[in-house]
Batch of 4 targets.
Target 1
Amino acid sequence: METEEQIRRFQEKPLYFRGSAKIHLKNLQFEIEDIPGGRTLDPKNVARLIRIFNLEGCLRLDMEHHIPAIINEDVLRRGIARSDIRRSEMFKCQSPPFLNLNTSALRCLHGRHRITAAKEFLLPGDKWWTVDLYSEGLSETLRRDIREEYANALNFCDGDIFRQFRYNQQRHDLLEEGRWLARLSECKRKDVKQLQARKELKSLNLALDDLLPNYVITYAMF
């Protein structure tokens, strides 16, 4: 059950939200690694993300792939004027505008690996990412909450991934099927393909399909 403090923070966070925008990668900087919630840059994780980008694209407009950042109010105001947009446009989740920040830097709270991978993967002239912007008044407690919220949004276990993969496969949605399969490691993708290709495992596949609606496929399966 939520405490009064948790409820207060949940209600307070939207007061600092300034909308979402496409931001050039050169304007995105990350917090130091020794702060609470900070992560050491892992080259293996960067390589994994590049592999996923190659398989399914960056999907920069999907809300689950946005990254959070802190923006100064003066920087935001100048960026809006420079970009010739209205502030209200930044609250249109499906089509956020491009925000030209010139040389100003944003302090990102999460997404270091994703942006490092994007810098390697994206072509010149297309190096931007969708950023959810928060004002500087955020307390450190709220910043920690936001880091954890965005980190958890991408934290799918292998069982969750297989369930979504198979669900979309049954619907003949090739795009979504490929997106979910790409979240597994190369070795585990081979395991899934072998599982579905071997006739002697047909009964196992049918049993797994029976479990899909109950959401009980577990991480230990893979």
Target 2
Amino acid sequence: MPSPPSLFLVGATGYIGGSLLTHLLKTHEDWHITCLVRSSAQESTLRELSPNVSSVVGSLDTLDVLRAEASKADIVVNCSDCDKEAGILALVDGTIERQKVTDVKPLIVQVSGTASLVDRPVSYGAKVDRVRSDVDDIDEILAFDPSNRLHVKVDQAFMSKCDESGVRDVLLAPGAVFGRGTGPFKKQTYVSILYEAIAGRGRPFVVGEGESRWSASSVRDAASAIAFFLEEGIKAPEACRLRFGRRGFYFIESFEMRTREWALEAAGRLVDLGRIKNLDVESLTVEEAGKSHPFLASLIGTSSRCRADRLKALGWMPAHQDWKPLMKEWGVDA
């Protein structure tokens, strides 16, 4: 029986990465996981989770640390900032070094996002009919212009470097991710911006018509999907069904949300918590929404619609396909 793999996890102190760590500790307790942390206090917390979890202090700016740790790992996963190009390419450098000294080719997984799908020019609040598939539309997605789409520049740099070096790589693009995280540190994500903005105005609101839509998943399903790729990637070459290089791009999504309904569900949660009373939805301009938070119009006024056809064809299925109960998890501390 082959020995358990070693994994270097960047982002274990965050929302998705922390939930991935918890998932792996339940499903693969024999894996050896090294986590990148920012402080000795975080190191202490992680030591209590499992004897197979260790840590190293650094960030996506400590390039030497990233290269060194990636060069020791069978699997490298970045769930942290997907736009830190120098740090991400340093992880690839370390994976290249690992490939030179092991008979089993290592795997590197970069977790990006689907903000790249937001069409230009943006029609704030309007319905966007286009839904992109990672099967039917993959050539278009890989050829996106990096000058006007988020994440694309680094996504392309990552795939190109891995392709040139022969490293086995997978680039995952989850849609919006929410629900209560299960990791040791961060339990909520940027969706908190919406809740706090609604609380500040005392009622739910949308940008424009409120017809924008985002493909999404629960954070637990996102973690489960990432783990699915790791499990598939460590299989023997003849059994592994993943594609790598320029074809190693996969969406992650479980459902789709219309932002008007999203705002109403968030407001309903705030009513439950006694923070607002009014459930009448108002329509704001981009400028008005920006007064509550500079990123709010982008969060609820744009559309990013996708289908994770490749992932689902591999047999992965989400546990959460009804998103509304997830909205009740906001504000739960325990």
Target 3
Amino acid sequence: MFISASTVLLPFVLQAAASPYQRQSVFKTSDDCPSGVHIIGIRGTLEDPGFGALQDVVDQLLDKLPGSDSYAIEYPASGISIGTDGKPIYNFFQYRASEAEGLARLSAEIEDFSEMCPGTGIVGAHVVGDALCGVTGPLFAPIPPISHDQTSSIRAIIQLGDPTNIRGLPWHMGNSTKGGIFPRQNYAPCSDYGDFWQSYCDDDDFFCDRGASVPVHLGYVERNRDDIVEFVVGRVKETHSGSFKYRVKSDGL
């Protein structure tokens, strides 16, 4: 789910299924493919249009990874506001529809780009967890994960304050002690992504730690900017040097 988590995928309902498949990428032919990496971002519900909280991270990555480009997924990002008491106010039906549209657009971009530019790595953020792991009930309509054939180009994933957080996973970063408000029911389809996935969650985050603080949730880039950039750049360079191996599950999940 997206609430306000972030991805270089850097590549979020009473609806029965996600919105129809829609081409998102600006690329028309393989001649347009970047020589670096394709940075995909999708803002959180409480963040500004574009890349939201990750804008500064994206700018630094474009500077450190020559030949790269970036693409921000457009979607409503609606259904949550902040009340006068500083606590989130939910319109769950609106949020669920917004989440479904964001997930559909992100999945379409990953699939389109990986087919158009199979030799270019993808770095991603936010709703990416739903795209890679799939969605299971009871609150959200079931959606299968993207196949490994479509995700083999992914080089790094960053999430900030993921509401589907579960403690103890290999990509968990931060000092949170509890799970998120929408804990993911099944991580098996994405269990191979731990080598290039970092999901930040700190104590008292309203969304990923079931805490009481919205400011904690909105402060991950300020607290972790350098670590995020270093991690993504390191994963990309390892992949280009051939020292990083992408693992595929033998059971096809």
Target 4
Amino acid sequence: MDSSVVHHDARRRRIDGLKVAISLCLCYTLCIAFVRVWIRRNLYGPEDWVVLAATILSLGQFACEYVAVGRGLGESIDVLRESPHLLTLNKANLAGVVLWVLALYASKFAASVFMSHFAQPGRHKKEIHALLVTVVLLGVGSLLTLLVDCRVVSAIYYWDFPRHVDYCPNPYLRWQFIAAFDSITEFLMLAVPVDLIWSLQMPTKKKLGIITAFYIRAPVVAFTLARNHYVHELMVDSDTGLISKIVVIWQEVELTYSIAAATLMCLKALVSDFNTSFGLGGETVRTHAASGYILSNENGSRGMGSQVGRLKQFGGGSRYGKESVVELDS
């Protein structure tokens, strides 16, 4: 068979594989969005609007990657260096990465806001507030790390790190910081729920069950490490064009799963038996219902003595309304 035909077939398979990966992530993102709309209907809260923003940003990011694929993303570096579409490809790559960071940290922020509804007043609330601030700061830090002192458009392929240093100093180090910020936020988001849940008065089995639900996010760390491995390969492999395709795929996988995890945490199974103590003689249960969380005693009674508990009362079709005081009479 003619070598040119073999080369064309291999090139076509690379491009098709990249398109399939991006399209699958796009489909999963849209499916998760529809699932969230369904399971949270009439119960929308602040985190739902943040997830909506993350989803919209991710759609813009997918659009940029489709443009990049059409302009040569996935081709060998030799082809890209001679491509007349290199400037357009670089613009699409940069726009895609910026939107990826924004969408990723929006999904992290949404998950953190959801955790805040399970925090008791005092130290736990402060922990959640610190987590929210950290997510915002590291998200902004990631964007600054990505953009500061870099030319928006260059004549060198964006992912060609060894040759890109004249246009964006230390590109590899920048992406190490981005990966570090990403990992730090994820580890914090895995650590905070343990402290939130473990101090509550409930059976250990239930504590572990709820913590496990929060740990749905754990694979995001693995996806970050996988992406960072191929970022390292950009510095040692001779064909950065082909390696960059794999970096982009892991970016799409991480973003898609992060948005999905923010939705899976909201499943009714997570909040239907969430127990906490408000100073009552027995354990209490905040039961997820259409009208909000209904506070009740573990043994089925409404309370012991004239105890007062605070819980969120939701009205007007909104999941999270103003806080009010509910008196529990014996």
